[in-house]
Every structure is written in structure tokens, then in C-alpha cells.
Specification:
The chain is built from 6 helices and 9 strands, in the order βαβββαβαββαβαβα. The protein is α/β, with parallel strands linked by helices and about 230 residues long. α2 packs parallel to α3.
Length: about 230
């Protein structure tokens, strides 16, 4: 029997990259997508659970039973957001989902996508970094079997993945030749495939670090099953 995981954010660039790797991995038996809108994926491993409000999980949380891990890739940009609105989605929503998940899966793993520059002290001047740090700190205190904070910097989309935002996709197209150089320096960049492979490898690899930057993500992505 393979691993069963819950994935959020599958309609986004990172989440879709993680989903593709899970679909291809012989280690993954089932993926439950929890999302507001469909990811448009039809695959024998994939079950899709659409919800209207992530702050009200009461009607659907019993579907979270018997999963090995949650790969939490849901997130928003801080651009145009007040500290209160950004904190509500980034911190409050994440912890609410994590609390519901662990209630049904005590011996589980939680992978959270944060970002380079996250402020673990929670005291810095950059709003998004403080809130991400606060969220990470809270997750690391929860009684998961293991919790991993993914802090990628530049992420190159692979396998045909495209950003829904035109100017962002244009940036990735322009930077593709640059990435062909950056990929030889693991600390400077990663890609959507490595994000997915690294998350999958947290399920069996006894990796000593729980806060992962580009270098650690790329290393964990290549770690063979022990």
C-alpha cells in the first residue's frame, strides 16, 4: 500500500507541480484535493473535494481520516493586502486546516510552503515575512510526527505548468535561459518538480532539517528511499 496525502492549492503553480509528481510517483496511492475550484484533473489516484469556505470545515473534515500527510500549498500574495487580511488567510486559515487535519491523523506529516525571507522572530519590518514566520512557528509546535517548512526562492515551473497571471508567466519565459544556469547552483533556485519530489520524500526520508531553503529542497528531492 502506498501513501495517502491531502493537497491544497492544486490550482496554483506550486500545488500543480506537487500534484503532477504525486500522480507519477509509485509511492503515492491517493491524493485528496481540497479546493474552492476544480483543478481539472482526471486521474485514478485523485479525489477532488470542493468547498466554499476554508474557515468552515465542519461539513467535510471527516473526509480527512486516514491520511499520511498534508501538502499545504495554498497561499496568496501580500500585494494589496492589509496585515489583517493577509494574516487571516496566511496564518488563521492555515492553522485551522492543520488543526482539522491532525485531529484525524495524529501520526502524520505536514508540509507548508512558506518562502525565502520568512521571519522566524516575528518581529521584522516586512509584514508578509512576520506573518509567515508566525505561521511556521505555530505549525512546528503542533504534535505532528514531523512538520516541514518549505522556503523556496525562485521556482521554475516545469512540465508545461504556467502561471495564470500573464506578466508572471512572461517573467518565467524570460528567465528560463537564466534558470538553465541557476539550476547548477542548488542554493539559488528550485523548480516545481523538486518541490513535489521533496514533499514526497519527507514521507520516508529521515531528513534532519525542518526548515528547507532551495538547497535543502533540491537535496531532499534527490534523496533515495531508505
Amino acid at each position: 500500500m502506498g501513501y495517502k496525502i491531502i493537497l491544497t492549492g492544486a490550482t496554483g503553480m506550486v500545488g500543480k507541480g506537487v500534484l503532477l509528481e504525486c500522480m507519477e510517483s509509485p509511492e503515492i496511492e491517493q491524493v485528496l484535493l481540497v479546493s474552492r475550484r476544480t483543478a481539472g484533473i482526471k486521474h485514478p489516484k485523485v479525489i477532488e473535494l470542493l468547498i466554499q469556505d476554508f474557515f468552515d470545515l465542519s461539513a467535510i473534515e471527516k473526509n480527512f481520516k486516514n491520511y499520511d500527510a498534508c501538502f499545504f500549498c495554498l497561499g496568496i500574495t501580500s500585494l494589496g493586502e492589509t496585515e489583517a487580511s493577509y494574516s487571516r488567510i496566511t496564518h488563521d486559515l492555515t492553522l485551522k486546516f492543520a488543526t482539522s487535519f491532525i485531529k484525524y491523523n495524529e501520526n502524520s506529516i505536514f508540509c507548508y510552503v512558506s518562502g525565502t525571507g520568512t521571519d522566524s522572530s516575528e518581529k521584522g519590518k516586512i509584514m508578509w515575512a512576520r506573518i509567515k514566520g508566525k505561521t511556521e512557528n505555530a505549525l512546528l509546535k503542533m504534535p505532528f510526527k514531523k512538520a516541514y517548512m518549505f522556503r523556496p526562492g525562485y521556482i521554475q515551473p516545469l512540465k508545461g505548468i504556467k502561471s495564470k497571471t500573464k506578466w508572471v508567466q512572461a517573467m518565467y519565459t524570460i528567465f528560463w535561459p537564466v534558470y538553465s544556469i541557476l539550476k547548477h547552483f542548488p542554493g539559488t533556485a528550485t523548480n516545481t518538480s523538486n518541490m513535489g519530489l521533496a514533499m514526497i520524500n519527507t514521507l520516508h526520508a529521515d531528513y534532519p532539517k525542518f526548515v528547507l531553503g532551495n538547497k535543502e529542497i533540491n537535496k531532499l528531492a534527490q534523496k533515495e528511499k531508505e
